[in-house]
Amino acid sequence: MLLILSLPFVGSLIAALLPTRARNLESVWAAAVALAVVLPLAMLYPQIAAGEVVSERLSWLPSLGIDIVVRLDGFAWMFAMLVSGMGLLVVVYARYYLSPDDPAARFYSLLLGFMGAMLGVVVSGNLVQLVLFWELTSVFSFLLIGYWTHRKDARRGARMAFTVTATGGLALLAGVLLLGHIVGSYEVDVVLKAGDLVRAHPLYPLTLGLVLLGALTKSAQFPFHFWLPHAMAAPTPVSAYLHSATMVKAGVFLLARLWPVLSGTDEWFWIVGGVGLVTLLLGAYAAMFQNDLKGLLAYSTISHLGLITLLLGLNSPLAAVAAVFHMMNHATFKASLFMSVGIIDHESGTRDMRRLDGLFRYMPITGTLAIVACAAMAGVPLLNGFLSKEMFFAETVFVSASPLFEFVLPAAATVAGVFAVVYSLRFGHDVFFGPPPTDCPRQPHEPVHWMRVPVELLVLACVLVGTLPAWSIGPVLAVAAQPVVGGTLPAYSLAVWHGFTTPFVMSLVAMGGGALIYLLFAKRFKQRRGSGAPLLQHVDGKQLFHSALAFFTGLARWLLRRLSTKRLQPQVFAMLVTAGLAGVASALIVPLTWGDRTRVPATPEFVLIWIVACACAIGAAWQSKFHRLAALTMLSVVGLVLCITFAWFSAPDLALTQLAVEVVTTILFLLGLRWMPKPVTQSDPRTAVRVWWRRRRDVVLAVSIGVGLSALSYALLTRNAPLSISPFFIDKALSEGGGSNVVNVMLVDFRAFDTLGEITVLGIVGITVYALLRRFRPPLEVIEQPAQQHVVPLGAVSDLQPRQQAGDAAQRYLDVPAVLVRLLLPIAGVFAFHLFMRGHNQPGGGFVAGLVVAIAFTAQYMVSGTRWVEGRMRLVPPRWIAVGLLLALATGLGSMVLGFPFLTTHTAHVSWPLVGAVHLPSATLFDLGVFAVVVGSTLLLLTAISHQSLRARRRSAPTANEVKVP
Amino acid sequence: MEIVISVSIGVLASAGVWLVLRPRTFQVLIGLSLLSYAVNLFIFTVGSLAIAAEPIVKPGLAANLTNYSDPLPQSLVLTAIVIGFATTALFLVVLLALRGLSGGDHVDGQEEQP
């Protein structure tokens, strides 16, 4: 079952990958998928007919009690057959409808996807899952309606359909969640049995309202009906599928599905019945005045869905059976009509009824089929539409509510019947009979036979059901209706002739009246210019929709303009104020008091270094605008004091890392300083007052945040710490982590996953920096050589090598340091190796080792120049990053291969000759990965910036030769 | 010691906050670095202020926080230092790119309009 459900989605993916224009291949594939769904479903019939509920489940969100459940009872089975069978017919039909220029891959892929979504809705055994597929149908229908993306009406129609139905879907989700809350389960089985509980619950009206909002928007019921006519911009096969058999039926499907749970109350009767009645009349009325054939069918669909909704709203089991019956009948005759319209459109080039005339002489077979289908739509005896309409009339007569309603309902039903006859006649008679058409874009003719086959099959079904109902459809209807009415079917009889009863009289009146009106007004209909129905032209849902859309867009823009700014300073200010207020608020709730932890006595040295650090921090804040180098120097003093503090309080690992990072950061800043613009010394006098105020304000904020943080940290430092998990780590470090340096063991073992994420961030930063700087174009004023490199005039006698050309940098003035630094490289390598190897047991580790190696390489760049280094060494930092990440990941996965959780460490003690016992945990490999990533990213960062000067010089070289004379 | 450290945290944070609110990118960069120093110091010291405690496991020494320095804030801060370095580097380069695109070093990409 789950397989059947996933089949269309898989098929959709494959269809998307087939060649775009291969119509034959695509349609054969889609038809095969549809067949593969239909056949197994059909084979389930004996089980379903025996009253069995076939279900299958897959664990989805067990913590929320939500599983993916496929649940197939009679009703779901009937709908699933409808969805997949109709899908098959549409697939065949669309092969001949689509023009060779249309991208067939997209069409079939979306169609199969829609089919899967719709199947998902009908076979869902879980309400949340149902909503999920429900929204999926909205998405696919959006894409299908907008299939002709170049057409504005298609895009607009798709957007409108999507907005309306998806909004309804959200309401439905809320309703379903409420339903689940009331019942205590989202399982359809459980919910269906809890009808009494739900109806008695105080939340019932709200739940009902939300669920109905979902169902009524989907089924295009008044007042949400306006999207359906605009959705007619879709290709006709899509309309035939979505707007006759599936998408719009989802709404009434849901009403019927939840009928045992939600119906039976006055609210249900008045809302569902009322909406259904209004929609029935309104749709039928508007349908009469359409000139576009698809528009006519769209409004008639609205009207028929209104009929089904009305039947469901009558709170009578018999009416519910009639509703189920009409769902099937409507699907068959409406799909065949849509397809006929498609044929007419395809072969004659227009769908405008004012231009079409007398088509019968050109396409007799299609004409016959369409006329029969029209007759079914009008409810002519011996066709399926007659039977369900008869049941509907009977229900309206026997409904017992207020006396007024007892009179109004049959009357309204008859009027709707009259309208239905009129618009069916307009289609069936107006288009096919009369004089030959005068201004058809094309000479109409019969279509290829296979395009007609789906219509033929559907019309055959109409006739069969209409003439031999008990034999052809009786058992299926019984199976399908049983779950809807909650188990026991009411007594009904499916016969063509019930005698001369009131419903039959109503049918006769409807047909007679309809024919009469048509005869009287046929000419007028044909001459009308506008497309709207009289009296309804000004009630335009589309207009309302668009103005609402414009209003909300405008509102959002206005709010954005009012509440937001693109400037950074106010944003940061607001953020800090909010954070500060949150801090103050929590201090008010939990009073900030000092604890009585044993104080650590202060030593003068420590106080002194922190006085220096604080002074430097303030100095950096003061100087960073105009004296960047000074600010940078003071910043590094703070960093070094921090480093000393780490060492002071027994954290050698931190001190090491801080020291190395400090060095790299400073180098980085120094490299960056070169590309900074000159400080702006003159500010705009017009903003002076504002700036003055802002500076005062910021000082106040900064000081108060500082005071608050001081108080907070003092409180934390003096209170006794609650129970910590740290002793656990200390305890397990050696026994289970296999290392005695707890911090390192935590990094590469206990919290290795965190470290994996961290080195990934490092790698990403490295590559991002590289990518950002690849496109960087330094501004002109910094392209020139720094003045310091021009101190030696050209040709001057000096112990430095004289410059060859103007524009060259002074060269080789760093020769002596360069030799020393080159000597340093292997020493740094050994030192890094030492740090790395001892890392697991002594302070050290992959991070520090990586930084040491990176610094050693960077030092080469600094003293010998980028060209010199890159001419002699091939360092490819991205490769280091890649190797490191893969190594770390492979170590983690390795433990999974051996059956342990991700990143479990194993320690081996190997004895090497000469070296002795070596301690080799698998975490060392992980640490090696960390090492490689750190080396790679740091180098990538630093060299990416240093390459800028190379590139800038290369670009400026030709001009510098001519212009620059010292 | 406690008072020294908490006052220092306050001073570093104040300087950092003030700089973060300034209009020049370099100031913001220095401010972020100062803020991260303050936060690292905060996280590190609230764990334990242990002078001459063991950072390395010694066999036979009972595993508690009077014998050992607290490894948990240390490993957190170690991660924070490295990530802080990475973000500082990224920010510096974004700053350079902004300079290349807008020609200036105002955080908004253009000088303040009156």
Structure notes:
The complex is a heterodimer of chains A (966) and B (114). Helices cover 71% and strands 3% of the residues of chain A. The longest helix of chain A is centred in the C-terminal third of the chain and has 42 residues, at 922-963. In chain B, helix 2 (25-47) runs antiparallel to helix 3 (71-102). Chain B has helices spanning 2-20, 25-47, 71-102. Chain B has 114 residues and is mainly α. The longest helix of chain B has 32 residues, at 71-102. Chain B has three helices and no strands. Classes of the chains: A mainly alpha (966), B mainly alpha (114). At the A-B interface, helix 26, helix 27, helix 28, helix 29 and helix 30 of A face helix 1, helix 2 and helix 3 of B.
- Whole-number mean pLDDT of chain B: 86
Distance between the ends of chain B: 48 Å
Please provide the count of β strands of chain A: 4
Shape of chain B: elongated
- Bin the strand percentage of chain A: under 5%
* Overall tally of domains of chain B: 1
Shape of chain A: elongated
Number of helices of chain B: 3
Strand order of the largest sheet of chain A: 1-2
- β-strand amount of chain B: under 5%
The major sheet of chain B is characterized as: none
Largest interface: A-B, 116 and 92 residues
Using the 3D structure, state the CATH architecture of chain B. Answer: Orthogonal Bundle
Low-confidence stretches of chain B: none
pLDDT below 50 for ≥5 consecutive residues: which ranges of chain A? 958-966
